[in-house]
Amino acid sequence: MPVTLTSLDDVKFTVDKEVAERSILIKNMIEDVGESDSPIPLPNVSSAVLKKVIEYCEHHRNDPVQVQDETDDPRKRSNDIEEWDMKFMTVDQEMLFEIILAANYLDIKPLLDVGCKTVANIIKGKTPEEIRKVFNIVNDFTPEEEAQIKKENEWAEDR
Amino acid sequence: MTNPFRHLATINCLARNLDRATLLICLRVCRAWYRVLEPLLWHDFWLLRNHIPTDYLIVLQRNRHSITHNDVRQGLFKQALIQRRYPSPASIEKNAQHIRRLFYYGEEHLFQQLAPFCTQLRYLETARYGPEMKPLLLQNLDTLQTFICKTDPVKVPGAEPVFMEWIWKYLVEMKDLRVLELDSIILSDYEGSKFGIVCRKLTRLSLVDSKLIERPKSETEDFMTLKSLVLDQSYIPKLEQLELFQLCPAMESLTWRSRTGALPIANFLAYLSSDKSPAAHLAKLDLSTSKILDEDFVQIIQLLPQLTHLQAAKTLFGSASTQALLQGQAHQMQLINLLDCPDVTKVETQALLQGCPSLKVFYAPVVSAVGMLGNRWVCTDLEELDVSIAEIDQLPAPSFPRHRAVYSQLSMLVHLRVLRLGDSGFAPMPDPRAPVSTSLAPQLKYVLDMRLDSGLGLLSTLTQLRELDLENMHAAMEFGTLQWMAQNWRGLRLLVGCVHPLEQQRKLSNDFLREFIPGLKTFFNRKELQMWNQLQ
């Protein structure tokens, strides 16, 4: 059964229910409303981003539902990104950030995860100042505070 | 530009994907990130071993080049090489409450400092059993989900099991306990009821080299949630082990091994045929090292229609079992381990590689190079392959490149992450670091030639390769081959074996590879790798 999604800029997208329900937000909305032809409004997601999100959900429509909890062994967690996802995430930084925001809003954990892995790979090896530039963050530490934090947490490099 | 990392959920998701070194850097980005990320730094906390035996120190020294700040697990190895650093008492008091997973192997003085503040543990893994553990368990009864007790393989390999009488009352009280793993532990259940109470809440129970004494002979209620059961050289009488199976109707994964290899197969088959059989769910079976005959394996396979993972290393699995698997579960098998099975020949291996399209992991003693002609393997989604390639000398000649048939087949496995090529089919040199003697040189025609000229270049398709094991392959890689590896296998993280027979050349080659493949670790042989892994 198809479902219609309406973006922030009023563009309508018709997708299979199975694809739309990769978003837990949408899944819950469908369950709450019941059978209906009314479009589902997504006022926080622009059409350009929604198009990308739908593309992701279509590709991953048959993936098993991920069950992740905090007790996942980090030693077993893979930081690798599959080839299709890597190509999918080869976008400009603004789009990458918008996809992450959309994944968070729509509650699509695998997409949020792959978006964050992509960002993690970008900032790996960078200094704090370089990371601030990536995210357009203002440094609100004094140099002394920054040095103190570094010294206080040196032990963590060893364990 | 919108910053997605102002929301807690996205910052947490980002943090889960950061290595330790980058997480430490991110603490200093801004105050908001510091507030959110500092607790995450403490989620996993290791209390390191108090000493490292000399053998392991040698391995550490040899691999010190590959210890980087970017690998939190490597922090374990720094304990032997640099002075240890500790968090301040104020930091411990502030942050120990954030520890969710605690690995306790030593440093009792640090344990004493942080234990009073650890109240939200979800996972505890320990090789220490002193009275200091009791208050920690008491204050985490409501949160602990995983409890692992084992002896330290580094400190006391082959030590006698540890007797723990006092642990039961805590295990019973842990209302969220789901995973219990005991290794070399003796527990007694004098009241005869605690074992059942604990098991009825578990999803996974593992008893390795462990003993339960005074356990009641019969339980009245099934262990409905237990899905994964490991009985590996445990001291429970074998028929009682079968009674235990019957209490687990939802079992999906079973590992069953005995000290002698003997298992009561007739009773096991009767159980699999009974009303209490888990055949509807049992998908993963590990009977490695068991003295199970080929014909018994046939019956087991026929009774488990949901089977997808079969570990049968060092058993008598043979041609009849292979046929049973191909007739029943070929389309669904994802893992098959038949290493060191004397009756598994190249015929069986070839049949499985040509008959099981869903295989992700395949370990077998030997495959024929001639059988690799024509790229007839259907398991193109393979991620791990461990097999020796024999009959190299029987490939049609002349052929250019020389071993094209072999490399062409391997190149189809584009998802391969682990490639272990086993041994070369003849006895290894007494000293793997000795140069190739002229008397051995003629035998090299039986060995896969690991050079570009011979077709290795076809393996540029293996872009996901993480581990390459060449032990006993007698490789003699030239500089061009090493450059090719650095260019095409940039994700390689583990190289086992020697890329050159001459020690000096080997050292230079490994240094080159480590410089141009970031994160690569190299080990002379699997024994060294095993020692390294035991320190993890």
UniProtKB/TrEMBL annotation, chain A:
Domain SKP1 component dimerisation: 109-156
UniProt keyword list: Ubl conjugation pathway
A Pfam family per the record: Skp1
SMART domains: Skp1
Residues in SKP1 component POZ domain copies: 3-62
Family assignment from sequence similarity: Belongs to the SKP1 family.
Function: Essential component of the SCF (SKP1-CUL1-F-box protein) E3 ubiquitin ligase complexes, which mediate the ubiquitination and subsequent proteasomal degradation of target proteins.
Subunit structure: Component of the SCF (SKP1-CUL1-F-box protein) E3 ubiquitin ligase complexes.
Protein name: E3 ubiquitin ligase complex SCF subunit
Originating species: Podila minutissima
Lineage: Eukaryota, Fungi, Fungi incertae sedis, Mucoromycota, Mortierellomycotina
From TrEMBL, chain B:
Protein name: F-box domain-containing protein
Organism: Podila minutissima
